[in-house]
Amino acid sequence: MALWRQLGSWALLTGVLVFGLGAGCSGGGASAQAKNPQISEPIVIFDENRAWDDLETQLTYGPRVPGTEGHVNTREWLVARLKAQTDDVTLQPFAHLLGGENVRMWNILARFTGTGAAPREHILLAAHWDTRPTADYDPDPAKRNTPIDGANDGASGVAVLLEIARQLKAHPIARDVTIILFDGEDYGPKVDNMLLGSKYYAKNLPNPKPSWGILLDMIGDADLSVYREPNSDKYAKAVNDRVFTAATRLGYLRAGTLSGFVNAPYRVPVVDDHMPLNEAGVPMVDLIDFDYPPWHTTADTADKCSPKSLKLVGKTVLYAIQMP
Ligand SMILES: [Zn+2]
Fold first, then answer.
1. CA of 237 to the centre of ligand 1 (A)
2. Domain CATH for 67
3. Is 313 inside a domain boundary?
4. 253 neighbors 23 (Cβ within 8 angstroms)
5. Distance from C-alpha of 183 to C-alpha of 195, rounded to nearest angstrom
6. Which of 149, 187, 230, 289, CA to CA, is 20 to 30 A from 155?
7. Distance from residue 251's CA to the centre of ligand 1 (Å)
8. Cα 88 to the chain's mean position, in Å?
């Protein structure tokens, strides 16, 4: 664990040294537009306070573990939030054998029709809405069977997508968008019982299949560093380039202690909900800050997260999905 942390600090320093200067000089979107007159400036409005409320509300339902009442209640709340933004909200039910029992789970899909001329690209914006039933990495062995709150690991990505849903209703974009909240990402303890919702969706893709996608996971950390996740560069480099270009134009590259994106590879590939999609031929990137000490512990609570981090990521995604 110590070595892991050391490597993290080294990678972070490198990122700041190489890319911090660029962020300081870029001046954000307006100057970027002047330099790129062929690109019309996307509308990137994001209310981080509303997103934060949605993060906290998820926590009031308790752990969102498949097979529990809190899970079903959260599902109902999420469906209602999304139905307020689009008529096209559906549940994709599936079941998975866990501990000898067939546990019911649901992916939640909300579709937004683009304003562009057909044929339009159809993009996926995804996060997982379930939470880990076990705090495997809790420093206190007595707590390792306790379900986690999942403020960052679960609620943060969903909170950003709920605000993006409101923005897509207020300011429709050219592309078709499906917001998909995956269930069963974090059941575990091992990977054969993880990524359940994304595996199910990837096996049951619409025809034609989505063009590309962006996954958000653990993007609420108050000390946010979103690197280029190596599997994303391997399978979906053009999408990752798009995201990091958006972050650069918005002035959201990490500088010093300021949170942000780091346009450098993360030190290890991450297996997450984007992999079943990539393997099914839908290029998808994972925006994730995996350097989060409370990961899979009972300390993954709202006080470790920040509305500002939700805003950085939310605005970057809104910008990226409007770029030509
Ligand atoms: Zn997790």
1. 24
2. 3.40.630.10
3. yes
4. yes
5. 8
6. 230
7. 29
8. 21
